[in-house]
Amino acid sequence: MMNKEAVLVVFSGGQDSTTCLFWAKKNFKKVYALSFLYGQKHRKEVELARDIAKEAEVEFEIMDVSFIAHLGKNSLTDTSIEMDQVKPDGSFPNTFVPGRNLFFLSIAAVYAREKGINHIVTGVSQTDFSGYPDCRDAFIKSLNVTLNLAMDEQFVIHTPLMWIDKAETWALADELGVLELVRNKTLTCYNGVMGDGCGHCPACRLRGEGLKKYFASDIYRLRHNNK
Ligand code: ZN
């Protein structure tokens, strides 16, 4: 059964992976968090991730994969691109690192195997996938099969956020008792502002609108006894 086992969370210190970290804590006995350093504009992201992992009392490790910054230009690593210039036409947002989750999950699986862990958690969501093909359920299932074949192992990739939107992700954080922690201590903002963020970049808008929707929901009112 799941509860007896160890799990590795692919952990960035953002809203989604932090919610997943606490989901993992609830469902598994031993939790490891792995963060990737890949030339982010905001290195602070990784330090915040370390702080959250410490508060959550989980094992934390940083893997330097900054070579991926040299594979293509994108606004998380290239400071010459303005973060707010995201295309409204459905083309990839300029935060796109092609195949990023393919890299991250593959490396995570090798790392997990070394530690004798076969459960892996990632905070990807098809609902809010914002144009990233490697956040889709079909990709994750396909990669899971590929990883198992590649290493002759029985990895299980868990995606607790796959079919829920940002409001429901806030609801999950609240259910796990970490709404305030996730709200105040995570970094999702493309401009590197912690907590509620700058309020106007695409990540802040998505996060803020989700929070507003959750606060307005019946489930929030029921949980917090408000009218
Ligand atoms: Zn922002």
Your description of this structure?
With 227 residues, the chain is an alpha/beta fold. The protein has a single domain, classed as HUPs (Rossmann fold, 3-Layer(aba) Sandwich). It has 8 helices and 5 strands, in the order βαβαβαβαβαααα. A 5-stranded parallel beta sheet has the order 3-2-1-4-5, sandwiched between helices. Helix 1 links the parallel strand 1 and strand 2. The protein binds zinc ion. Zinc ion binds next to helix 7.
What keywords describe this structure?
Rossmann fold, alpha/beta, binds zinc ion, 227 residues, 5 strands
Condensed summary:
This protein is an alpha/beta fold and 227 residues long.
- Which residues sit in consecutive blocks of at least 5 with pLDDT less than 50? 79-94
| Neighbour order of strands in the largest sheet | 3-2-1-4-5
CATH topology heading: Rossmann fold
Integer tally of domains:
1
Rg estimate, integer Å: 17 Å
Architecture, according to CATH? 3-Layer(aba) Sandwich
Overall, the morphology is globular
Q: SS-based structural class? A: alpha/beta
Which kinds of small molecule does this entry bind, naming each only once? Answer: zinc ion
Classify the beta-strand content into a percent band: 5-15%
Average pLDDT, all residues: 87
Main beta sheet: strand number and arrangement?
5 strands, parallel
One letter per element, helices H and strands E, the order comes to: EHEHEHEHEHHHH
Beta strands, count: 5
* Share of helix, binned: 40-55%
